[in-house]
Every structure is written in structure tokens, then in C-alpha cells.
């Protein structure tokens, strides 16, 4: 066999030879969009690239504009739709110099205006294209492989760069210059130019068409309209080719499947200008000899499907659109119930009445006994195909009036479930299609059994984890907070990550995030204990360092060898100040209102449970309205491939680019590429500041005979300073009673705190006794005391007591009828 290899071929690698053969096998015309995309897809296969793009000069010749791309989303690497020819981008440099560039992470980071890419380190290649009437261009490829593009990769990419040929320019958009069944849509005006053949597909007469794209969109089935809008709205798409299938309602009322292939062409400035493409009858485009490839794709998708829902989605993707089916359902068989896991389309009105009546949230189910035909197919275990007109029970007949395929899903000697595929219009089942459905059923059954076992165990783990975390976060005055927890997919053991948001008196709030060593039931139990302990110590009124110190001593006293890390942040919402205490945990990341970020690496203490007499110093955090605080565990920023410092830098970069107005979207975006080999906890808070800052005054009460009179005089001065012209007698009486009660029944220091906000006065007296005042149930005429608390209750809108650092605070709130003014 080696004799057939030429002398010239002997020096080339096997992969390069396969790439040459793949290019020769392309049957599309030179310059066609299909050929260009095929060349880029082959660059992904043979050139070691995860993303490949082609740029060409724009109409004005001062920019390189994106013509086509293939691979992962280019936003992962910060690749843009256009580059100035005079700029310092790799694409422009390679184009001007007519020499290829091979850049690693260090060279990319040194480029002007470079920012960390969400995907992390990557390598980039820029290769000039052969000159052509359009002025040549540039092939750009991106790789995440360690070490970047090797010698064989580079030879293949050079081969593909030489093979690139461009589709012709968009021209004027004259329908006579366009291919059959084609259109040209101006993105700025919404005017669309179509030929007669395309109007015939839509069932329209040329004289009745007004030239508006809205007219064509109005004929789409409502369920498919959002998908179409994503193609024709410039704000939602980027330069390149799009392909999708959709349904229209013809004037006769019948539905027709159409397939759209379109390309968005850029203007001279690189922005979307014109969408050109073709529309064809999808029923005429069905492939008759691609069943083997479909089965291979389905097998690959099911190999990575971890959950029952993933299995269902893989089956829908592999079968519904390629078979032009109108609906498909995947269901598990549990006893005599058919538990549906995936319905496509998902709208209840698209399914028979029995399915709608059994609808239950996201997991509807239907009894098998109501469908004898389905029950018989499951019992026999063979694929059943029912053409149009077959008398079936209504629950099945309405699923596929034009044809129905029932696929029992065998696994492990029993039926794991069933897959139903239905058509609305008469459908012919060819022999190749029968083989495809039978093979797909066997693959799906085995995958369904594996996923069901995984789902059951994972749900048990998730339920245990959810019971140990807050069910919901409390509303915060002057701030908004969101939290996310993402369990690991590497195993089925519960983790020890936790978070908490604790409202505290005087407009304070505590943010807590932590991580217990290990992934097992002991770690989860300890996590619940530490979360409860920190909350209890915080509510007692201790400062942050004391709260963490108490939790450390508690853990040291437990019979465990595990330790925990945590970060505790106390935020004063009224003053806009915060204090942070770290116990072996990651530092907070702040995003300031101007978009800059800081990784606040402050002095911290050791992890909890390591040293009994440990110091946990407090560090201030700078806050101003609009500042976002991000607390996370190491699962988000550290992995086997990602160093901790690099992960924190990436997190800071993602926060800088985020929109703080939508915290939920920010949290979801941060977790989109999270490392699933470890648990991840994330807590975000945006500090907005109180709409009206409270007025505060404090005074230490002297233990002298005139102490109560001094407290009233201090209160009068504070009220006059705040603009209250007439001192309310109720406020002075409440001050007298609370101060008297503290002086008579406690020892040590007594402090009077006055707060005024929104014409509401808060009087609080702090003493060193933890014992709360007791309201008497009855008082005789001869009693000389005990009426103070009753007076406070009668005069106040509300009152109460809270623990504060070993003592307590007794407080009362009273409304001021008179507006506060000068």
C-alpha cells in the first residue's frame, strides 16, 4: 500500500493529506456560501481550531469585515465583527504584511486594548488569503489546545487559507439578480425584495405583496415567530450565515414547513446592512441517505447526556426537524404511568386533551391504560408506525393525524419508556426511516435508564443541599442581593458550600459565604451547623470579628477533624460603610459604579477549626451607591486548569463588563462557564444606599440622681437640631421610662440612641444585662412600679428588645405628626 504514496506526499503528515482530500471532495461551486462554510468547518476538524473566521475588506476599503464563521461563539475570545485596516489587530497586521501570524496568550495580552477573554488562555492564528477581485482577506483561527497550533495544524490552516473563495458582493438587491426562491432584506428600512417563486411558497400573489418583511412574518406560526425575529432583527444577530426551519399558515389554513438560509452582509462600517438568502419547501429537502450520520450524531449526543431531560432534548434534536415532524414526546414508564419528560413543542395546546388534563407543572404524565395501542406497542417492544387515517384512540390520533411513530425504548430487558413522533400532514414511512427510528429507540432506551438513575440520586443530594441553604433572601433596605448554588456534576455527594444574608438592627446586614472541607454527609451537616451558629452570633449583636471568633471556638469544640473557611461582611446601609472578616476564605471582589473592579485582599485569619486562640482582624470596604460586592467559593475561580489568582482576575473582568442593574443575569453569566468538578456558591449584593439617610445621636447616660432629666434634655437638643420645633411629649416620656428601667434594673454602662427617619422616631437604650424587660400581667393600685413598659407599649407604634454584645437593646418607634423642617 505504501507504493501508492508519491515522493512529494511522503514528506507531508497524514492529517494534511486527509485535509487535501476533504477539499477536493467539496462539490459546491467556488465562491458559494456553502463552500466557504464547509472550508471553515474543515479547519475546525483538521486545523485544531475551536473557532474559524474569514474577514474581507468592506465596501469603503478601510475595514476588515467578518464574512463567515464556524465553531464556538466568538464572544468567548473577544473576537469582533470588524477591524480597522490601519489598526493593530492580528487580522489587519497579517493582511497588510501578507504574512501569517501565530500568537500565544502573552502576545494577545500585550495587544492594545486587550482584555481577558471569558474562555481564558487561547492561541490565535491570522493567515492572509490569496488576492482576488475583492481584495483578498484574512483567515483567523483560535485554539485552546495546550501549546497552541502545532506544525500539522499550521500546514492545514495554510491549506485552507489558500482554498478560501468569497461569495460575490451583495449587489443592488435586484430580484432578477438573485437565485430562485430568494430575498434581499434591507436591515434599516425593513423593505424586502423577493422573487415570484418565493411568493408562491408563501401563497401570495405578486401584485398583492407590499414589500414589507412584517407581511411575511405575520404568516408564520406564532410559536416559530421568535425564532424568525432572531434572524431578521439586526440587534440580535451578527454577520455570518443562518439556517432554520419554520412553519407558515397558508391562506387555505394549512401549515407548511419552509427552510430559510440567509447571510447577513456588512456595510462599509462593519455594521449589519442587508440580509440575503433563500427559502425552500422543507418537505422537498429531506435527505434519503443520511440516516447513518443521524444515528451517529444521536449516539454522540446521548453519550454526554447526563439527565433525563438531556436525553429527551438530544432525541428531539436528532429526530424532529430532520424528519419534519410536527411534535415529539419522550416519556418514562413508571408502573402504569407514562411520565412525560420532554414535549416539543412545549405548549399544552399543541397536544391532545388527555395530555393537557394530566399536565403537572414541567412534568406532565398520562396513564397508559387510556391508550391501548401504545400499551400494546410497549408490551410487544417493537416500533409501530401508523400512517394517516389509521383508527386510533383520540389520545394518540391527535398526536399524529398525518402519521404516528411509536418507539418503545428498551433497556436492560424491560421497557424504559416510549417516544412518540407525530405528523399533521400525510407522511410516508420509507425503509431507511424505519431503520433510523428502530436504531434511535435502542440508543435512547439505554441512555434513559442511565440518566434516570443519575437523576434520582442527584435529586436526593440536591434536596438535602437545598434544605441546608436559605430558601429565599430577605429584602434589604437600600440594596439588592441574589445568590446561586451550583452542585458539582463530578459525583453524587453533597457539598459543604453555603451562603447567607442576615438582616441586623439599625439598617445593618451581614453577608456570609463559606465552605466546609470535603464532600460528604459530615461536611453537609457541619455546614448547616456553622451557618446556624454564625447567624445566631450575628443576631446577638456582636461585631464581625467577635461573630467569626465565636464560630471558630464552637467548631474547635466539636468532635470533627474538618475545618471551614468563611468570609463575613457587615454592611451599614445608612452610612455606606462595611467591615470584612476573612477566615481562610477568598477575598471579596468589588465592582465600583464606574465599572472598575478591586479584589480586596485584606488581612485575614486562619480557617475555622484550626487554632483556638486565633485573631480575625476587621478590614474596611469602600462603598458608594452602585457598588457591587461579590462573594464566592473556590469552585468558581479555581480548577485543575485554572490558578486561583487567574480565576479571581477573570471574575473581576466579568464583573467589570456586567450590567449591575440586573443582578440575576450577572449571577447566571458568571456561572455559565463554572467548573462543575466542585460545588460553587455565589452571593452578589448591589449597594444603592437608603433613599433618605437617618439622623442619629447617641449619649452615654451618667449614673447620677439627675440622669433621667439629662436624658430628656439631650433628647430636646437633638430634636431641635433636626428641625422638630415642638418636642413631642410622648417621645420624652418614652425616653424617661426606658432610661429609668435600665438604671434601676441593670449595672454598668447605659447608652441612649436616637434615630429619626421618614418622620419616625426610634428611641433605643442599650445596657449590659442580657435579661429582657417583662411586661406585667396586672398591677395593683398600691404598686409603686411596673408601669413603665406598659406606658412604652401604649405610646409607641412598636417596640421590642434585641441582644447586643452580651447585653440588650430595648427600643421603641413613634411617628412624628409634625413634619421635620428648619
TrEMBL record:
Pfam families per the UniProt record, alphabetical: GAF_2, HATPase_c_2, PAS_3, SpoIIE
Residue span(s) of domain PAC: 242-294
Segments forming a coiled coil: none
UniProt protein name: SpoIIE family protein phosphatase
CDD domains xref list: HATPase_RsbW-like (cd16936), PAS (cd00130)
InterPro entries: Bact_Sigma-Reg, GAF, GAF-like_dom_sf, HATPase_C_sf, HATPase_dom, PAC, PAS, PAS-assoc_C
Keywords per UniProt: Hydrolase
SMART domains, per the entry: GAF, PAC, PP2C_SIG
Amino acid at each position: 500500500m505504501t507504493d501508492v504514496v508519491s515522493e512529494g506526499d511522503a514528506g507531508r503528515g497524514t492529517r494534511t493529506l486527509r485535509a487535501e482530500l476533504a477539499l477536493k471532495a467539496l462539490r459546491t461551486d467556488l465562491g458559494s456560501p456553502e463552500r466557504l462554510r464547509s472550508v471553515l468547518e474543515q479547519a475546525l476538524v483538521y486545523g485544531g481550531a475551536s473557532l474559524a473566521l474569514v474577514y474581507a475588506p468592506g465596501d469603503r476599503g478601510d475595514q476588515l469585515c467578518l464574512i463567515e464563521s464556524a465553531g464556538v461563539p466568538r464572544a468567548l475570545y473577544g473576537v469582533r465583527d470588524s477591524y480597522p485596516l490601519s489598526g493593530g489587530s492580528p487580522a489587519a497586521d497579517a493582511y497588510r504584511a501578507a504574512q501569517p501570524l501565530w500568537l500565544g496568550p502573552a502576545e494577545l495580552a500585550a495587544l492594545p486594548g486587550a482584555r481577558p477573554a471569558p474562555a481564558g488562555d487561547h492561541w490565535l492564528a491570522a493567515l492572509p488569503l490569496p488576492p482576488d477581485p475583492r481584495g483578498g482577506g484574512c483567515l483567523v483561527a483560535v485554539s485552546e489546545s495546550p501549546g497552541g497550533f502545532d506544525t500539522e495544524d499550521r500546514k492545514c490552516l495554510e491549506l485552507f487559507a489558500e482554498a478560501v473563495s468569497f461569495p460575490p458582493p451583495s449587489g443592488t438587491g435586484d430580484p432578477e439578480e438573485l437565485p430562485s426562491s430568494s430575498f434581499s432584506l434591507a436591515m434599516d428600512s425593513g423593505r424586502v425584495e423577493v422573487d415570484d417563486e418565493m411568493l408562491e411558497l408563501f401563497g401570495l400573489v405578486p401584485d398583492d405583496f407590499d414589500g414589507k418583511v412584517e407581511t411575511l412574518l405575520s404568516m408564520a406560526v406564532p410559536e416559530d415567530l421568535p425564532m424568525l425575529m432572531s434572524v431578521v432583527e439586526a440587534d440580535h444577530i451578527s454577520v455570518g450565515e443562518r439556517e432554520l426551519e419554520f412553519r407558515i399558515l397558508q391562506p387555505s389554513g394549512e401549515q407548511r414547513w419552509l427552510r430559510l438560509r440567509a447571510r447577513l452582509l456588512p456595510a462599509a462600517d462593519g455594521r449589519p446592512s442587508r440580509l440575503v438568502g433563500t427559502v425552500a419547501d422543507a418537505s422537498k429537502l429531506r435527505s434519503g441517505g443520511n440516516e447513518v450520520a443521524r444515528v451517529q450524531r444521536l449516539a454522540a449526543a446521548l453519550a454526554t447526556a447526563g439527565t433525563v431531560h438531556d436525553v429527551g432534548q438530544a432525541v428531539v434534536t436528532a429526530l424532529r426537524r430532520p424528519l419534519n415532524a410536527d411534535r415529539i414526546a419522550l416519556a418514562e414508564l413508571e408502573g402504569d404511568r407514562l411520565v412525560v419528560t420532554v414535549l416539543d413543542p412545549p405548549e399544552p395546546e399543541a397536544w391532545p386533551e388527555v395530555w393537557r388534563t394530566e399536565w403537572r407543572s414541567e412534568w406532565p404524565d398520562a396513564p397508559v391504560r387510556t391508550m391501548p395501542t401504545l400499551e400494546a406497542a410497549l408490551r410487544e417492544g417493537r416500533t409501530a408506525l401508523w400512517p394517516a387515517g389509521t383508527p386510533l384512540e383520540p389520545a394518540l390520533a391527535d398526536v399524529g393525524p398525518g402519521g404516528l411513530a411509536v418507539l418503545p425504548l428498551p433497556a436492560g430487558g424491560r421497557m424504559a419508556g416510549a417516544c412518540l413522533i407525530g405528523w399533521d400532514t400525510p407522511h410516508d414511512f420509507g425503509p431507511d426511516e424505519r431503520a433510523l427510528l428502530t436504531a434511535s429507540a435502542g440508543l435512547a432506551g439505554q441512555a434513559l435508564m442511565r440518566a434516570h438513575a443519575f437523576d434520582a440520586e442527584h435529586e436526593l443530594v440536591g434536596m438535602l443541599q437545598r434544605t441546608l441553604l436559605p430558601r429565599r433572601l430577605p429584602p434589604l433596605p437600600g440594596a439588592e442581593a441574589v445568590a446561586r448554588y451550583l452542585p458539582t456534576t463530578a459525583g453524587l455527594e453533597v457539598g459543604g458550600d453555603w451562603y447567607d444574608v442576615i438582616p441586623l438592627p439599625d439598617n445593618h446586614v451581614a453577608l456570609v459565604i463559606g465552605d466546609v472541607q470535603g464532600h460528604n454527609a459530615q461536611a453537609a451537616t457541619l455546614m448547616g451547623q456553622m451557618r446556624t451558629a454564625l447567624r445566631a452570633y450575628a443576631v446577638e449583636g456582636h461585631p464581625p470579628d467577635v461573630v467569626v471568633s465565636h464560630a471558630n471556638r464552637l467548631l474547635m469544640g466539636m468532635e470533627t477533624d474538618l475545618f471551614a473557611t468563611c468570609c463575613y461582611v457587615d454592611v451599614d446601609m445608612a452610612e455606606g460603610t462595611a467591615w470584612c472578616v476573612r477566615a481562610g476564605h477568598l477575598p471579596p471582589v468589588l465592582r465600583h459604579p464606574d465599572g472598575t473592579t478591586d479584589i480586596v485582599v485584606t488581612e485575614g485569619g486562619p480557617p475555622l477549626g484550626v487554632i483556638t486562640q486565633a485573631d480575625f482582624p476587621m478590614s474596611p470596604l469602600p462603598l458608594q451607591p452602585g457598588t457591587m460586592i461579590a462573594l464566592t467559593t473556590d469552585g468558581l475561580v479555581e480548577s485543575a486548569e485554572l490558578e486561583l489568582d487567574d480565576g479571581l482576575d477573570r471574575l473581576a473582568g466579568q464583573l467589570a463588563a456586567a450590567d449591575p442593574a440586573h443582578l440575576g443575569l450577572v449571577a447566571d453569566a458568571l456561572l455559565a462557564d463554572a467548573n462543575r468538578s466542585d460545588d460553587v456558591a455565589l452571593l452578589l449584593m448591589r449597594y444603592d444606599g437608603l433613599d433618605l439617610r437617618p439622623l442619629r445621636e447617641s449619649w452615654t447616660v451618667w449614673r447620677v440622681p439627675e440622669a433621667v432629666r439629662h436624658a430628656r434634655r439631650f433628647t430636646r437638643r437633638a430634636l431641635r437640631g433636626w428641625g422638630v420645633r415642638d418636642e413631642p411629649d410622648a417621645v420624652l416620656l418614652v425616653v424617661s421610662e426606658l432610661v429609668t428601667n435600665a438604671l434601676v434594673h441593670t449595672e454598668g454602662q447605659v447608652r441612649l440612641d436616637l434615630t429619626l427617619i421618614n418622620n419616625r422616631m426610634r428611641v433605643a437604650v442599650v445596657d449590659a444585662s442580657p435579661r429582657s424587660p417583662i411586661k406585667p400581667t396586672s398591677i395593683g393600685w398600691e404598686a409603686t412600679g411596673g408601669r413603665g413598659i406598659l406606658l412604652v407599649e401604649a405610646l409607641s407604634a412598636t417596640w421590642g428588645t434585641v441582644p447586643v454584645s452580651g447585653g440588650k437593646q430595648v427600643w421603641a418607634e413613634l411617628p412624628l405628626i409634625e413634619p421635620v423642617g428648619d
